[in-house]
Design a protein that fits this description.
Helices cover 72% and strands 0% of the residues. By secondary structure, the protein is an all-alpha fold. The structure holds heme C.
């Protein structure tokens, strides 16, 4: 009985030590948690509103008001992109199959932050253009969001996909 009790305590203690170490540094263990988190953020908070807008521009889906709403959400989310890039979480430290984040992100952190700011600004501009309701102007500004916003960061900071 006593040994069982001690064993149970030891197991509990080990469990909490594990939980604490995971809580403190999700980037360590193998570093994949933070990579998965930022990719999920990119898909849910960045790509989703982007596709809503694309649906309006390319296929006439939804309304200009939907575009304004999605563009405002995209602009707000842009500020969150850089949050999940601790040093050591890119290529060079991890297999190229796991992450497309290039070491240049940490060599030029200011440039990376600036690129996120450009997406924020282009998307905010799209929100105000969309409020005007002109489909042609919306299409043109959507092009800027893709080229300067997404492209302006992916080109220098994201590597080729590796399978
Ligand atoms: C400030 C930089 C930055 C901006 C702006 C940015 N991205 Fe990304 N994005 C990245 C990086 C870096 C990765 C790779 C992350 C990784 O693999 O760890 C990435 C990954 C992604 C992914 C995950 C799947 C994949 O192909 O790697 C999607 C989807 C994506 N971006 C879409 C977009 C779209 C759409 C926009 C514009 C609306 C955008 N991104 C703007 C930096 C950015």
């Amino acid at each position: 009985m006593r040994t069982f009790f001690m064993g149970a305590i030891a197991a509990l203690a080990m469990g909490s030590v594990l939980m604490i170490s995971q809580g403190i540094s999700p980037a360590h263990a193998d570093g994949h948690a933070v990579i998965e988190k930022r990719i999920a953020f990119m898909k849910n908070d960045i790509l989703k509103p982007f596709l809503t807008i694309k649906g309006f521009v390319k296929d006439g889906k939804g309304s200009a008001a939907d575009v304004a709403k999605a563009a405002a959400a995209l602009s707000a989310a842009a500020g969150g992109i850089v949050a999940d890039y601790p040093k050591g979480s890119g290529r060079g430290d991890h297999d190229a199959k796991v992450t497309r984040a290039l070491p240049k992100i940490w060599e030029d952190w200011a440039g990376f932050e600036k690129a996120a700011g450009v997406l924020g600004a282009e998307a905010a501009k799209l929100a105000s253009v969309a409020a005007g309701g002109d489909a042609g102007a919306i299409g043109a500004q959507f092009g800027m969001v893709g080229k300067n916003g997404c492209g302006g960061c992916h080109k220098p900071f994201r590597g080729e996909k590796v399978k």
